[in-house]
Amino acid sequence: xxxxxxxxxxxxxxxxxxxxxxxxxxxxxxxxxxxxxxxxxxxxxxxxxxxxxxxxxxxxxxxxxxxxxxxxxxxxxxxxxxxxxxxxxxxxxxxxxxxxxxxxxxxxxxxxxxxxxxxxxxxxxxxxxxxxxxxxxxxxxx
Length: 142
Description:
Elements: H1 8-18, E1 28-33, E2 37-42, E3 49-50, E4 54-55, H2 57-76, E5 83-91, E6 101-110, E7 114-123, E8 129-138
Antiparallel strand pairs: 1-2, 2-6, 3-4, 5-8, 6-7, 7-8
């Protein structure tokens, strides 16, 4: 297992300082991050729902992208200009209203300029993913 370059506390502080529009610390929590994987929890809010009472696609895509950013930062350190170059999402089942959404992210390959990972999104305590995401990030020269 890779050694984390940033702890959960360091990630939270960095994100509050550098990316407050996405991480204000009240609706998304970083439960773990170890340089290879991370687990994020987005607390349920009615703002997550689309007509028909399911968790919206934009909510799921944003959480998955944010989870990839967190796992990448935990692996490479505070390089804020790492950016998404590709994100592919497969919606598998309905996300249930009233349930937190969990994002389990994992790096598949970490290179000098690109990182590839996957995210499973889960609704509440169900073990069955509601979406599966693959993503690539570009890592700037520092």
